[in-house]
């Protein structure tokens, strides 16, 4: 009973710190966010932050992980609404690119996140994303929908194109204009993976 209550308190403390940090990082940016202010907002001390996350970077990692999990859930819903696996893959990729316009995702995941945590394609969450995309592409190849290529290479380049587009949009002076161009080109690139119809050409 005591151990259960203690575990609940730990989770509550972590949640309060992440919530406060997420709000601060989204509105002020990582560099400008004050640890004293965000811990005060959470009703905690800087010592609590150090104890649970090590430092400000560790807190950023936790915020990124939380947002990334929420994005993954939303993208899975987009994929599952599609009429078939190919359309689901395309819709999911486009939805990811479109998320670059959302202020919180733009600031935390695409601008400050890479600056603080390094290349997003190497974040732990990307491994699961890559596995899912590779499996989907392999299935599409087995069905004869996508050309026979190396499934992992195809998944890496497709995911990389979507990430590159999102990063470009986030850093652009006119994000909506870059979004429109990016989606058009991404769709054309992805469609090039489709297996030509019999007798085509």
Structural Rg: 20 Å
CATH homologous superfamily designation of the largest domain: Tetracycline Repressor, domain 2
The CATH architecture assignment of the largest domain turns out to be: Orthogonal Bundle
Structural class: mainly alpha
Helical residue percent band: over 70%
Strand content: under 5%
Textual characterization of the structure:
- By secondary structure, the protein is an all-alpha fold.
- It folds into two domains: 1-54, Orthogonal Bundle (Arc Repressor Mutant, subunit A), CATH 1.10.10; 63-191, Tetracycline Repressor, domain 2, CATH 1.10.357.
- Helix content is 77%, strand content 0%.
- It has helices at residues 2-28, 35-41, 46-53, 56-81, 85-98, 103-117, 124-142, 151-171, 175-191.
- Helix 1 crosses helix 2 (35-41), helix 4 packs antiparallel against helix 5 and helix 7 (124-142) packs across helix 8 (151-171).
- The radius of gyration is 20 Å and the shape is elongated.
- The termini are far apart.
- 26% of the residues are buried.
